[in-house]
Amino acid sequence: MKNVTMFLWNNFTNDARVTREGSALSAAGYHVTVIAKREENEHDLKIREQLPSGIHVYRQDKETFKPKMIKATTMVKKHIPNALLMLKMIRAGYQTKTDVYHSHDLNTLIQGVVCAKLRPKKRTLVFDSHEVNTSRTHYKTGLVYKVEKFLLNFVDHTIVENETRATYHEMLYGYRPLSVHNYSEYYDINEVQAALTSDKKILLYQGGMQEGRGLPLLIEAFKEADVDALLLMVGDGKIRQQLEAQVESLGISDKVRFTGRVPYEMLRAYTKQAYVGFQILQNTNFNHYSASSNKLYEYMMAHVPVIGTKMPEICRVIEGEEIGLVIKESDKEDLVHAIRYVMTHPEAHAEWVKNNERAKHIYNWEEEKEKLLQLYRTIDAGDHNG
User: Fold this and answer.
1) Who contacts 25 (Cβ-Cβ below 8 Å, separation ≥6)?
2) How far is CA 176 from CA 17, 256, 341, 376, in A?
3) Which of 92, 314, 352, 384 is surrounded by the fewest CB atoms within 10 Å?
């Protein structure tokens, strides 16, 4: 049995992509360990646990830096705990005695490089880039590019989320990575029990509540559309309180509901009830522009039509499979029109539902995971060439 150690810069409670990949490898006979982190306010999470999928989780505590003798800047207070956490992850990574290290995103690639390459007998290193790190909000593009370019010299295999990002990566670094889409697991939505009851049609957003997701615009458009429906906001994030305040100030608290964070295994119970789902990313950077996002496929798997932004990967699926409407990015009037159209054209809605039922047989993890498994079969055969 081959041992695989994955590094992950979160607590590994709601990471759908890593769960899918780790579970697929575990089911294929690999011993999978995920080294994740645990914040000071997350001590309810176990340091070590084994998931039903067979994945072994080993969380490292992140400590708060409390300087006594020096006057520390905010940057120092932030980066010293991160550096110490990286060292803990590296120590844990060495202890796993693994065959393959698999770093999820750039913030765990140093850990992977040290564990895989700074040793007498080198190990295979896989870099799984969930985001476009050189073009993200609040990231220093030039510095990130230099760091990523240097670390890629030590990487044996690279994975990205889709072909648009594979092309961008090839343009930057001179080689084309493997694209593994973040499709939802295949399941029968009719076997899922609904999470709540409502006598109104539910318009659904599920996912992180951060800048660039078009959420303030969605709330404004929902009020202006003035339809007989409930806007359900499933998830959490930095701007949730801002969104709740916006809803209250617009006087639509009786028509909008926030659920907070929902465990991944319970998410489809909310998705099931949606009449339409939103994926309205704003083109604030290439990371957003090139995204396909797992929520698009989660909507599809539940037969939920989608209103999405006109960006390449989102547009390709919505228009290509005819499962909803594509709107102009950051265009409130277009969004208002789309909401009203969906609510007043049941025949179009029924057709989108039917098309989703067909498309889910193509866009699902059971099909897509074969790309990941084939990569690991190649690694097993001894091919360690980029």
Assistant:
1) 4, 32, 372, 373, 376
2) 21, 44, 41, 17
3) 384
Q: What would the pLDDT profile of 237-287 be if each residue is shown by its tens digit?
A: 999 999 999 999 999 999 999 999 998 889 999 999 999 999 999 999 999
* Per-domain residue ranges of the chain: 3-183+366-380, 189-359
CATH number for the region 3-183+366-380 comes to: 3.40.50.2000
Query: Nearest to residue 104, comparing CAs of 17, 183, 2?
Result: 17
- Rounded-to-10 torsion of CA 48, 82, 260, 105: -80
Strands 124-128, 229-234: pairing kind = unpaired
- pLDDT at residue 192 greater than cutoff 90: yes
Assigned CATH for 189-359: 3.40.50.2000
Q: What are phi and psi of 373, to 5 degrees?
A: -65, -35
Tell me which H or E stretch contains 338.
helix 332-344
The string over 229-265, giving b where at least 16 C-beta atoms fall within 10 Å of a residue's C-beta and e elsewhere, is bbbbbbbbbebbeebbebbeeeeeeebbebbeebeee
Rounded CA-CA distance 300/159 in Å is 24
pTM metric for this prediction: 0.89
Residue 69 has pLDDT above 50, yes or no: no
Do residues 315 and 229 lie in contact, with contact meaning Cβ atoms separated by under 8 Å?
A: no
Query: Would the CATH topology of 3-183+366-380 be identical to that of 189-359?
Result: yes
Of all residues in the chain, the percent with pLDDT exceeding 70 is: 94
The DSSP code sequence of 116-132 is HHSSSS--EEEEE--S-
